[in-house]
Amino acid sequence: SKEPIRVLVTGAAGQIGYALVPMIARGVMLGADQPVILHMLDIPPAAEALNGVKMELVDAAFPLLKGVVATTDVVEGCTGVNVAVMVGGFPRKEGMERKDVMSKNVSIYKAQASALEKHAAANCKVLVVANPANTNALILKEFAPSIPEKNISCLTRLDHNRALGQISERLNVQVSDVKNVIIWGNHSSTQYPDVNHATVKTPAGEKPVRELVADDAWLNGEFISTVQQRGAAIIKARKLSSALSAASSACDHIRDWVLGTPEGTFVSMGVYSDGSYNVPAGLIYSFPVTCKNGEWTIVQGLAIDEYSRKKLDLTADELSEEKALAYSCLS
Ligand code: NAI
């Protein structure tokens, strides 16, 4: 039988953590035949709640779950982990300046980067979920120089899945028949949900989404703003931010990264830019990628029209500003 994989979830006592850890323990993230050992990290004020989650994991008697480490010690949390899902962070509170939130998260991600670099398993794959996700991932990368940049990513798969969902609702087709939407850029409201390469499986073969929707005003307007603003709409409705969809998308992200994307399908991941599509190198930017043998590759050669170009640049500009703000917090 397979050796267990150690999966770290930081912020495990929080909302997303509560939805995510049972998914991992059931094999949703790494496969139904893959044993796991869960490492759950949170901070001392959440220690009691974290222990409650650990009790529930024991109570659920998950056959794949071979062990649980619940801790507030960063080193213990990071030791030997093969996959790290970084959900913990400092939330923006009323009246706080953007710079103050950034500064808190920069110091958290700097410290956790060092712990991962020193104590995680070689070739550990890192997914940053906590906001500002792209910039937290960039800080993590900068302060864990021995972790290959290919191993550090941030979550935009939720936005990607939201885009698939909107197209499926609009066309009244199965969401599993829609593919190859793209989220470009930041996991923020400047992200660009792009359907120019998306298709739908129909009885008459694969058809472009643009042709089937046949309403450019909707695709260039309401569709984009709905996906961009979906997080805010969930908060308004639930009085809490997205949790089950975020957890499920985090599982999709890691599963596809580790086990590969289906032939002919690409997904969106926030990864370190190499300058593809004239996106400035050195940002963590969401691109269309395919995955094989545990590695992602940016899909090359997609046509970018003038309208899209502006949107790709706008979200890159925001990320450059965030990067500068993060660096100003370091000094
Ligand atoms: P939450 O507030 O319920 O949970 C966050 C947890 O992190 C808390 O238990 C807190 O104690 C813990 N924490 C704080 N500092 C920590 C540290 N230094 N080390 C370890 N744990 C720490 O928040 P929720 O709803 O679970 O969201 C978590 C994060 O995910 C937020 O930053 C949120 O904005 C982000 N998010 C990102 C999405 C994405 O698509 N990238 C989607 C939805 C949320």
Structure in words:
The chain is an alpha/beta fold and 331 residues long. The strands form four sheets. The protein has a six-stranded parallel beta sheet with strand order 3-2-1-4-5-6. The mean pLDDT is 97. Helix 1 packs across helix 10, helix 4 crosses helix 11 (306-330) and helix 6 packs across helix 9. The radius of gyration is 19 Å and the shape is globular. The protein contains eleven helices and 14 strands. The longest helix has 25 residues, at 306-330. It has helices at 15-25, 47-59, 74-78, 98-119, 133-142, 157-171, 209-213, 216-220, 222-238, 244-259, 306-330; strands spanning 5-10, 36-41, 65-71, 83-86, 125-128, 152-154, 178-179, 182-184, 192-194, 199-202, 205-208, 267-272, 284-292, 295-298. Residues 10-11, 13-17, 41-43, 46, 87-91, 108, 129-131, 133, 155, 158, 187, 241-243, 246 line the site of 1,4-dihydronicotinamide adenine dinucleotide.
